[in-house]
Write a structure and sequence with these properties.
This protein is of the alpha/beta class and 273 residues long. The chain has 2 domains: 157 residues, P-loop containing nucleotide triphosphate hydrolases (Rossmann fold), CATH 3.40.50.300; 71 residues, no CATH class. The chain contains 9 helices and 11 strands. Helix 3 crosses helix 4 and helix 3 packs parallel to helix 5. It starts with 8 loop residues before the first strand and ends in a 5-residue tail after the last helix.
């Protein structure tokens, strides 16, 4: 890694397409011309995306549209073939995933990976201690972690998991496992949270409960989520980007997207929730 790759680089103003004018509020998250190719296949093709602070933004599209690939590019899990990613106006394209987490961006996955041998409380406590630089020795200091315990109980209350605090993670119902995964992401203290199909595999009633928890997150957290349940998308998103064949077909409010003939044709099938 070169010296320039190991630090956040400031945006290049007029030299970067789609740059924010001087004096204007910087988007919390911005992608400019983001592309990713796997051999001859182009999963993302020149994607532009801009989320202001506090956004509630949904990313939708048919299977294979490149939604998860885009999230992987935004978070640094994948390196782009072209284009740039900016956090609060700073170019982070060359930064690895863990460095972006340290700068406030975190995400969940379609398939969760949790600490099955720990209780719900212990799982969140470990994540909180990791954020505070105590991850390697958290279990030795349990009796002295008052502030950390308060953080965990606050998270449990927010996630509606307080009654399950002592339960081993392996015994959690699937819907609550998804909530715990969101809790682990929140324990990192993110300013930007990316959720990859958080309601996948969850019964409809539990999905609504989960999104009510998500919707109640403070506006200090900017939210981008992938979701196939259009009822949830149109209820909770404030803006929606439609991705088709790796490109942004259109972006707008839920009302604008529901009325767009192109979206009806390629994705909604003529039916609007």
């Amino acid at each position: 890694m070169t010296a320039s790759e190991g630090r956040v680089e400031p945006g290049h103003g007029r030299n970067v397409p789609g740059s924010v004018a001087s004096g204007a509020a910087q988007p919390a998250l911005r992608a400019v011309g983001l592309s990713k190719s796997f051999g001859a296949f182009r999963a993302n093709d020149g994607v532009d995306l801009s989320l202001p602070g506090g956004a509630r933004h949904a990313l939708i599209g048919p299977n294979g549209a490149g939604k998860t690939t885009l999230v992987n590019l935004l978070t640094g899990r994948l390196a782009p073939s072209a284009g740039d990613v900016f956090l609060d106006g700073e170019r982070v394209t060359s930064l690895p995933e863990h460095a972006r987490v340290a700068r406030g961006m975190t995400r969940t996955f379609q398939i969760n990976a949790l600490f099955d041998g720990l209780s719900v409380f212990e799982s969140l406590l470990l994540a909180v201690c990791q954020r505070r630089g105590q991850g390697a020795s958290w279990w030795r200091r349990l009796s002295r972690l008052d502030a950390e315990h308060r953080d965990v109980w606050s998270l449990l209350d927010r996630l509606r998991l307080s009654a399950d605090a002592a339960l081993l993670t392996r015994h959690l119902p699937y819907g609550k496992r998804r909530l715990l995964e969101i809790g682990l992401a929140l324990a990192t203290g993110p300013s930007i949270l990316l959720l990859d199909e958080p309601a996948s595999g969850i019964p409809a009633a539990e999905s609504r409960d989960m999104f009510e928890v998500i919707a109640a997150l403070p506006r200090s957290v900017t939210l981008l989520f992938i979701e196939h349940d259009m009822g949830l998308v149109f209820r909770f998103a404030e803006r929606i980007s439609v991705l088709v064949a790796g490109r942004v077909l259109c972006e707008g409010t839920p009302d604008e997207i529901s009325k767009d003939a192109r979206v009806r044709e390629v994705y909604l099938g003529g039916a609007v929730p």
